[in-house]
Design brief:
By secondary structure, the protein is of the alpha/beta class. The chain is built from eight helices and eleven strands. A nine-stranded mixed β-sheet has the order 4-3-5-2-1-6-10-11-9, with helices on both faces. Strands 7-8 form a two-stranded antiparallel ribbon. The mean pLDDT is 92.
């Protein structure tokens, strides 16, 4: 395998499947199968999942709610998704640990860097919930931060598009797709790969990012094998 330790970032919206909100059991099963194939190869895998299918702090602020309160509600939404993913993975026979940026002792461990690394070394899949545990930071930022903390080889951003384009391919069918870009090229073109805090963390720590289509069966495993799937930012 090309990578030994990987952090996979999934959006909460990805879990909706064809629903308007919540969690689609079929999509959850699909992701579980993709993840299981990777774990069985011996790759050390950690996952950060968003909460946008349940609640988004930024939308709450737009409706007049206090931003900090909204962000904490968003963090709890990610914990709900993380628990659903953990349940599905354990049902498939994968040993997992759920670690949270917030202290919620009844359902998950509090994030401790050394303990997270030890879980990975022992072959357990680690899910990081509750973002960074701080308001004003997105789950993209949490993914970048946790990846750096656990010394991951790469951040994989699983989306519904097959890489980075010069414009939104769903709105602009003639948009150019990139297979390989530098951090500086992404910033120069003003492309929206991650929010700027998350992207800067990866840039400063020389942590490569791969943006790929998580909904295409086999893509995750192909990346582990070193195939050119999606767009590599380095």
């Amino acid at each position: 395998m090309k990578y030994k330790r990987v952090l996979l970032k999934l959006s909460g919206e990805a879990l909706m499947g064809n629903k308007n909100y919540g969690i689609d059991p079929q999509r959850l099963d699909q992701y579980t199968n993709e993840i299981k194939k990777v774990v069985e190869t011996g790759v050390e895998l950690a996952i950060v999942i968003g909460g946008g299918n349940i609640f988004r702090g930024i939308q709450a602020e737009q409706s007049g709610m206090d931003r900090v309160q909204g962000d904490y509600m968003g963090m709890l939404a990610t914990v709900i998704n993380a628990m659903a993913l953990q349940s599905a993975l354990e049902g498939a026979g994968i040993y997992t640990r759920l670690m949270s940026g917030l202290k919620i002792d009844q359902v998950c461990e509090q994030f401790i860097r050394r303990r997270a690394i030890r879980h990975l070394e022992k072959g357990r899949l680690v899910i990081f919930g509750a973002g960074t545990g701080n308001p004003y930071f997105t789950t993209d930022s949490a993914a970048s931060l946790r990846a750096i903390e656990i010394e991951a080889d790469v951040v994989l951003k699983g989306t519904r598009v097959d890489g980075i384009y010069s414009a939104d391919p769903e709105k602009h069918p003639d948009a150019e797709r990139f297979t390989d870009m530098t951090y500086n090229e992404v910033m120069k073109r003003g492309l929206n790969v991650m929010d700027m805090t998350a992207f800067t963390l990866c840039h400063e720590n020389k942590l490569p990012i791969i943006v790929f289509d998580m909904n295409t069966p086999g893509n995750l495993l192909k990346i582990m094998k070193g195939e050119n799937i999606g767009t590599l930012v380095h």
